[in-house]
């Protein structure tokens, strides 16, 4: 942006474009102007660079620290990875037994076992999600916001 005291209308539109706040009706027109006007395209590129730099310089949120603690927690990893493995394995086994039509040969116990594994995996994933939510709830900035 130039060293003027107030931004020009084009600069304001460029800022809105970079922020994704340009109205839908003006979006296509502005993009066609970007193809025709190199100076406007340079202005947008500079603003995009500034937006990227600002995102990189922002300090981590308190919730980000809690995410890192959860990722390092062996119980959380066990519940998410183990739950996903059990859920997919159980459902995959159920589907294979039913599609191959061999559920009668292997017996009812195989269907119950694979269904139970899928259900256990689902419960483990639900428990991991609830644990994540309760651990991050104190860091949620929108908890006290009312509509």
UniProtKB/TrEMBL annotation:
Keywords: Membrane, Transmembrane, Transmembrane helix
Residues passing through the membrane, by range: 78-103, 109-130
Gene3D superfamilies to which the protein is assigned, alphabetical: Anti-sigma factor, zinc-finger domain
Origin: domain of life: Bacteria
InterPro entries: Anti_sigma_zinc_sf (IPR041916)
Keyword Membrane found: yes
Protein name: Zinc-finger domain-containing protein
Organism (species): Engelhardtia mirabilis
């Amino acid at each position: 942006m130039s060293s003027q005291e107030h931004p020009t209308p084009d600069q304001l539109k460029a800022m809105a474009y970079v922020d994704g706040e340009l109205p839908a009706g003006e979006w296509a027109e502005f993009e066609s102007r970007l193809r025709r006007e190199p100076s406007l395209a340079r202005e947008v590129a500079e603003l995009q660079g500034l937006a990227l730099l600002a995102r990189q310089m922002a300090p981590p949120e308190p919730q980000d620290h809690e995410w890192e603690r959860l990722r390092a927690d062996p119980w959380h990893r066990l519940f998410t990875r183990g739950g996903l493995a059990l859920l997919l394995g159980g459902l995959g086994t159920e589907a294979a037994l039913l599609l191959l039509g061999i559920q009668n040969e292997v017996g009812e116990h195989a269907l119950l076992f694979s269904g139970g594994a899928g259900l256990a995996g689902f419960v483990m994933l639900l428990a991991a999600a609830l644990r994540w939510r309760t651990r991050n709830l104190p860091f949620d900035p929108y908890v006290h916001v009312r509509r």
